[in-house]
Write a structure and sequence with these properties.
Blueprint: E1 2-7, H1 9-12, H2 21-36, E2 40-45, H3 48-56, H4 65-88, E3 94-99, H5 101-105, H6 107-122, E4 126-131, H7 145-155, E5 160-165, E6 186-187, H8 192-197, H9 210-222, E7 226-231, H10 237-242, E8 249-251
Helix pairs in contact: 3-4, 7-9
Length: about 260
């Protein structure tokens, strides 16, 4: 199986912006084990800006572009150092790939990007991808890694996209404020009703929210790729997903997209 796994800032860090060391260590261990079983894994990671904010000691994510880019530059170093160190403990080599919107939109750039990813997988390397937030401006900005993960999956013909976040999946309403909210285990159509129940982001360090995950699911579904949204609180959930168990919300390709 070729799988794209995306982890969000809320999964990688504490509310302070500092790295959740225990969770990240376990995440790298589980991904390494899944790869040892013969699967190809591409990791799309958020967290650079959040880690930069935590390292510098800011109280919240900055609003101005120069400071955002500075925090991304600081945090990206820390992020890749951590991944390289942890994956090497399980004898896996990682490669950093930073992209901007132009790398996706431009046909030549996209072809080169796909060729690089394909070759890295052939070399048994784990590509670790993030948007190049330290140089990207609004004109060349994808803005969130949920859609980026789906776009990458479509381009390299992945079998599955997994979005790990701070919630178990898509609910009928916000479970943080509605105790009667129910998990929607399967979605076969992106309808106005599905879009309506997708809420915003509750993380002061992240950029996404459920709506970006539903939009990513639309991209994947239209290309024939399933997408699963699940909680990243316990990375062991990846074992269940790869084994085909019913976890989180599965957006099933082949359904209608309205």
């Amino acid at each position: 199986m070729r799988v794209v796994i995306k982890v969000g800032t809320s999964t990688l860090t504490y509310p302070t912006g500092n790295l959740n060391i225990h969770r990240v260590e376990k995440l790298c261990k589980v991904i390494s084990d899944i790869k040892n079983a013969g699967n190809e894994v591409i990791l799309v990671t958020s967290g650079a800006t959040g880690m930069g904010v935590g390292k510098i000691g800011l109280l919240k994510r900055p609003d101005d572009m120069p400071t955002k880019q500075a925090m991304a530059a600081i945090g990206q170093c820390e992020l890749m150092y951590t991944y390289d160190k942890l994956f090497s403990e399980y004898n896996h080599v990682v490669a950093q790939v930073l992209v901007t919107k132009s790398d996706i939109d431009n046909e030549k750039h996209r072809r080169n990007f796909n060729n690089t990813l394909t070759r890295l997988l052939e070399l048994n390397v784990i590509p670790i991808i993030n948007e190049n937030d330290s140089v990207a401006t609004e004109e060349f900005f994808i803005g969130e890694n949920d859609s980026l993960a789906a776009i990458i999956a479509v381009n390299i013909k992945a079998d599955l996209v997994i979005l790990l976040t701070d919630i178990d999946g898509l609910y009928t309403s916000d479970p943080r404020s509605d105790k009667n909210a129910k998990l929607i285990s399967e979605v076969t159509e992106i309808t106005p009703e599905i879009l309506a129940v997708a809420g915003g982001s509750n993380s002061k360090f992240g950029t996404g929210g459920m709506i970006t995950k539903v939009n990513a699911a639309k991209i994947a579904m239209e290309a024939g790729c399933d997408l699963i949204v699940a909680s990243g609180a316990d990375p062991d959930v990846l074992y269940d997903i790869v084994d085909g168990k019913n976890v989180g919300t599965r957006f099933v390709s082949g359904g209608a997209v309205k």
